[in-house]
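Weekly sync notes, structure subgroup
Attendees: PM, AL, DS (notes)

Item 1: joint prediction request from the bench team. They want all two components modeled as one assembly rather than separately. Inputs as received:
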Amino acid sequence: MIFCRSLITVAIALLATAPVWGQKLRLTDVTKSRIEFGTKQLVADNAVELLTEPVVPKAPQPQDVGKSLLETPVKELVQHASDTAPADVDPRPTQPLVQNTVNESVAPGDVHWHTDPRAAQAAARRSGKPILLFQLLGELDQRFT
Amino acid sequence: MLFSNQTVADYINEHFEPTWQSVRPVPTVTIDFGNGYTIQRTLNGNIATYVCTAEGTVLDILPGIYEPDTYLAQLEQLALLARYAERNTGASLVDYHQQQTRALEAGRPLLRLEEFEVPAGAIFATEDGVRIILTSSTVQQRAARFERRKGERPVLPPGEDLAQWQALQQDTQINERQRRLQIHRYLAERPSTTPAAMTKWLYREVLHADLDDPYLGLGKLLFENDPFGG
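Output from the run, pasted for the record:
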């Protein structure tokens, strides 16, 4: 009888303190801070390296020179040319700015032109008519006259 | 344009031995607007119509551009002038230019040569019964003025832009009043001159296109206000 009581008491104690076998283990709902803290710490420690671009050593690049370094030689060249040019040379372009374009031929009206003044003169001596000499800039048988 | 006018062309072919001569290349300018549009035109061109004897002596000159009716009327006068100079002595040509000079200086229009039939047996009879005289007015001119006062308007030739025609009219008037005065003064002093002897003077002094100037007198206009000029 006493043995039975002792046995029951032990059993009860075991049941009260022993893990519950066969039951699902329920995890304590820890706050996310406990989980994240470790991660945050890890990130914080490595923030500099992770948030900036990794420094990849670049191949040596030519330095970006200012445009003055490029323009200066040209300016000096022009200045030198200007200094050495004779003072009486007209700096304005000597060649026409507009290249001679194709000047299409047109009929010179309905007048029966002699080819040149001498031919007209010979004809005038024969016919007794006066000479009409038409002078112009350009050519009468071209579009731009 | 003038020589495409059939009436003008026909008159020239019938009454003259025509020839043309280029005094220098005409300057042209092309403007590129940068959007695919360009224009090209001549710059400071000008013309002159000489009437000469068969020996090459200058009788008279029509300077610049004329509207066709006035050009034709003046060509008729110059054809008559050739016959007038032929019938008379050389002094008559000097007298002709001097009288025209006096008329223009006085602000009057040019004198006209008129052809009259002279009956045989008359005091001033001629071999062919025709007399040409220089006169300031004629019965025909007075009648023409009367007709114009009745309300006739000059008719714009078909195909002509009004602004262009008005500019041509103005050019014609300048030619007849200012430029011909310079020419008559010059020819009154040099009655035996030839086109070769007076061309440079004509283009420089009358037509304002100096043939010896590489910029044809336009240098000041082109470069004076150019901020990038030399």
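Discussion: The two ends of chain A are 147 Å apart (CA to CA).
Action: AL to compare against the crosslinking data before next sync.
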